[in-house]
Amino acid sequence: MKKIIAICGIELSLIFKKRQNYLMMFAAPLLLTFVFGSMLGSNDDKLRLAIVDQDDTILSQHYIRQLKAHDGMYTFENMSESKASEKLKQKKIAGIIVISHSFQAQLEKGKNPELIFRHGPELSEAPMAKQYAESTLAKLNIQVSAAKTVAQAAGENWKAAYKTVIAKDHEDAAPVVKQKALSDKKEGASDTASRAAGFSILFVMLTMMGAAGTILEARKNGVWSRLLTAPVSRMEIGAGYVLSFFVIGWIQFGILLLASHWLFGINWGNPAAVIVLVSFFLLTVVGIGLVIAANVRTPEQQLAFGNLFVIATCMVSGMYWPIDIEPKFMQSIAEFLPQKWAMSGLTEIMANGAHVTDILGICGILLVFVAITFTVGLKALRA
């Protein structure tokens, strides 16, 4: 273990010895976060959204009340579809949530009604707002299912049982809602949160792609051969390099996380959830770096192909702009890219206060990426 840590320490010193690396690792992402966050963000603390209730039933009205409970981040206003469309065109509101005519009917059948969320392409907070609307709908669906079960057992109408269920739920959740609202007000939901996450992911990947090229440089300069003559195994050498890439990624992401919190007031959410999610993502990036390093011959080629891959896939994954504005085929491609899942996880943590247990599915997907990239990369490097 000491040998692995020693190799890791040497690689870290080489990376942080070059002053120009600090510009790429820290200054550039923070500057772009500020610029793009200012351009795409809103000057208001709360995001103004219109609600068009085409169903106008008990469930649609309760859904609206549940949406408005999160008043620390969003301001909802009921209005007609024509008025909402006009206000959206005039940029007086950020988006429109349309509740369809079959909303209650679909919920009674145990199905999820389709929600239509319309917004302009400049709305960087669109994924967060959409996820909030969908998670609130999922909660409502659970309440309706519980009411139907209670009604069936008691032999009464489900609407009567539903009133009992939501009354109890409201009683249990009231202190939490109040605490959440105060927390949001205190921290301030920054308009640059999405851009901070996106640019942090982008520049961490760029740094780690360059760092992975040190394996090729070590082979080219004979460092690898000299290390093999020492009392250290090939596995220990490889583990030392992998650990150094992972630590470099965490140092960069950790500093960006803290700096964006202090400079822009961004609340990243539950620390444990962020640590677990980012760790899985960084391991995935290390694996991608190994795969590219195994298929090129020089550090220059590693840097060129690595940067091309990172920039192109980050575009498709919605790191620069909301993924909702992309064509459907690009959104389908994004499903097979780790950045998309990392961004989804961070959005879930920041927007909905997700904990570790809430992002286990996303972590599982990232773990699959880790397994595939490490298997392919390490096998090719041994060849």
Automatic annotation (TrEMBL):
Please give the Gene Ontology molecular function terms for this protein: ABC-type transporter activity
Sorted alphabetically, the keyword list is: Cell membrane, Membrane, Transmembrane, Transmembrane helix, Transport
PROSITE patterns for the chain: ABC_TM2
State where it is primarily located: membrane
- Which InterPro entries does the record cross-reference, listed alphabetically? ABC-2_transporter_component (IPR051449), ABC2_TM (IPR013525), ABC2_TM_bact-type (IPR047817)
Query: Which parts of the chain span the membrane according to its record?
Result: 21-40, 196-216, 237-260, 272-296, 303-323, 359-381
Segment forming the signal sequence? none
Per UniProt, subcellular location reads as: Cell membrane
Q: Say yes or no: keyword Lipoprotein present.
A: no
Q: Name one Pfam family in it.
A: ABC2_membrane_3
The chain positions of domain ABC transmembrane type-2 read 159-380
Gene Ontology CC terms, in alphabetical order = plasma membrane
Topology in the lipid bilayer: Multi-pass membrane protein
Taxonomically, the superkingdom here is: Bacteria
Q: Would you identify the family this protein belongs to, as annotated?
A: Belongs to the ABC-2 integral membrane protein family.
Against PANTHER family, the record matches this protein to:
LINEARMYCIN RESISTANCE PERMEASE PROTEIN LNRN, MEMBRANE COMPONENT OF ABC TRANSPORTER YHHJ-RELATED
> How is this protein named in the record?
ABC-2 type transporter family
What is the protein's species of origin? Answer: Bacillus spizizenii (strain DSM 15029 / JCM 12233 / NBRC 101239 / NRRL B-23049 / TU-B-10) (Bacillus subtilis subsp. spizizenii)
Q: What is the lineage of its organism?
A: Bacteria, Bacillati, Bacillota, Bacilli, Bacillales
